[in-house]
Amino acid sequence: MVIVEIPIGPQHPALHEPIMLKVRTEGEEVVEVSVNTGYNHRGIEKLLEKNSWVRGMYISGRVCGICNAVHMQTYVQGVEKLMGVEPPPRANYIRTLVMELERIHSHMLVAAVMAEIIGFDTLFMLLMRDRERVMYLKELVTGNRVHADIHMLGGVKRDLDEVRRDRILSELKIVEERIKYYMKVFEEDYTIMKRLSEVGVIRKSEALRLSIVGPTLRASGIKSDVRSDDPYAAYSEIPFNVVSRDEGDSWARMMVRFGEALESVSIARYTVEKLPQGPAIPKTIPRATKPGEVISRVEAPRGELLYHIVSVGGANPYRVKIRTPSFLNILNTEKVYIGHRLADVPVIFASYDPCISCTERVMVIDEKSGKKTYVSMRDLARVRVG
Amino acid sequence: MEPLIEFLKLIFTALVYPGLAFLTILGLVSQWYRRKLIARLQNRVGPKYVGPAGILQPFADIYKLLFVKELVTGAYTPARLILYLVILGIVALSASTALLPLTPLYIRAEYDVLVFIYLTFYASIAMSLIGLGSVSPYPGFGGVRYATMLLVFEPVIAISLISMVKVLAPNTLSLADALSNPGILRAQQPLQWIFHVATIILAAISFSIALLSKTMLKPFDIPEAETEIAGGYLAELSGPALGLSILLHEVEISLYVFLFANLLIPIPPILPAPLSIVMSLIKYFIVLTILVLVAYSMGRLKLDQALRALIKVPLLLSIISLALSFTI
């Protein structure tokens, strides 16, 4: 049979971000998929090197629109470690609240995108409508709907008062009900079950071998979560469960996200109810660090987010290396598509909850010979796996 | 003089009512209705600005595609072939309306339901060939997917239509008889009546599922699956070719839903003509509403799942209903 090459992306209705999946099919069956990246490089890491520690905070927040608070958290907690600054408990609670709100809306977004990809437009619209409540909550806490910008070296920028606390609690109740409802829809709807179950299965051993992270890993039956393995912010004081499932397919990934969103609601409620007294906003902002390096990691909505920050002293970082969860999840899973139908490719891709703007920062220049050599991101990912 | 008047009447039937113009207007008004309905379902407003409550929006869209937008011809799109195909489809659908008893002048013959099936089959062929005629992989996939589904839904539509007509017009198998003087309303034995109603229900279920797939409504919008093959058979079309393809799709939906609504809920023959047409339209919108609400509360199936679903339920039910209609 003739093999047809179908380009999905970089501009395609199924993808909301610029990436290209070159799909080779034999009839409807997929025989090969290769992931092409490089459409969205912005030089974020270089920008971080060129700017001061405080400005770097805002740049790291701009790596990604959806998970901006976790990027800021990773950067800020790393820099705080270098500076020897400890944020007050109240600030840690507020940071946790914002990050959990972010997780809720991120998981609702990917559920909506998944609904759209399987052609369930009605569910997409309703999910996006209810996601707006979470955005409103985020605005209530931080003053901004999308970019939280709540972090500050040594604390947070805005405190939470009593009036807003009550409002958050009443809104969280509605959000929880809606998430439970949509979880039920994903569990029971005929077309969703038909399209998602048994599609893109990643077994436990395979998930470990491919260095998969986040809900995609937890859906393959491995309970790994930075929030419980290596607690940061206020997570060591907050009780919560790590949600996992054993099926390993696209449906399990969505179910893990819904379970996590419900956990996030309870974490958010806990942080608001048990908010410690004391100051949250730092009086002075430190400007310089001692020489040293630090690795900082955080559980982003898509998985483990890692910053490697190197300082040689002074007002700017020497190097900031960012490794985002999507980098591992997208590039290492090319083989999962093979044997599925063409219609399954966008479903599997969306089930990883890909975030391209996070991932695209790599540019390799051979400085020794003075030549610019480009190494594709796919090769880099393979090097990492090997 | 008489042949000339007859000829003019025929032209009027084909071009104005219930032919091309009527079908176009009905199709576009129902597109507006469908869009409005889906919008309300999805917490949106829907068409709003052109005409009262946006009712003229589909007309404006089609006008713009036909007369303002350019027909881009390239290596990927044999534009003229596609235009011919679309026109073939629209003409075939308009011609088939002559078999419906909407005007005093309609064509009626025994077994003319077969002629109707034959004529409307051209619309499906045209849609499939629009995709296959293009060189680009997206429309190619759309065309292949539609052609594959066509092998299942066309038999289902034909079988269930024949069994419905057989119950409503047992002696002649004529569409006009089935629609204007349905046999089910005549006096008959209770047992026979029960069997007739059962046949109609079985045929209606299979027909409506096949209709969703023929008209590419969800969960069978596989040939145009936007998030998989970027609009499928329409992906490479532009300007007039796109406008006419959309028109062909709308006209097909309207014609089939109109026929289905009127076969499903028979009108007593005592009503005067204008009133019966109003009644027909009311039934049409009721059935359209139900179909659209069902369709848009679902996602899209995969091709193999859709084929399996079509063979499992509608094909089986339609064969049972055909057997029932011929034995009783």
List keywords for this structure.
heterodimer; A: 386 residues; Cytochrome-c3 Hydrogenase, chain B; three-stranded antiparallel sheet; B: 328 residues; mainly alpha; 0% strand; globular
What does this structure look like?
By secondary structure, chain A is of the alpha+beta class. Chain A is 47% helix and 12% strand. Chain A contains 15 helices and 8 strands. In chain A, the strands form 3 sheets. A 3-stranded antiparallel beta sheet of chain A has the order 1-2-3, with no helix packed on it. In chain A, β2 (20-26) and β3 form a beta hairpin. The longest helix of chain A has 29 residues, at 89-117. Chain B is mostly helical and 328 residues long. Chain B is globular. The model of chain B has no long low-confidence stretch (mean pLDDT 84). The interface between A and B is medium-sized, with 31 and 30 residues.
Report the end-to-end length of chain B measured between terminal Cα atoms.
48 Å
Give the strand content of chain B: under 5%
User: How do the strands of the widest beta sheet of chain A line up side by side?
Assistant: 1-2-3
CATH topology (level 3) name of chain A: Cytochrome-c3 Hydrogenase, chain B
Task: State the name of the first-level CATH class of chain A.
Answer: Mainly Alpha
Q: Extract low-pLDDT stretches of chain A.
A: none
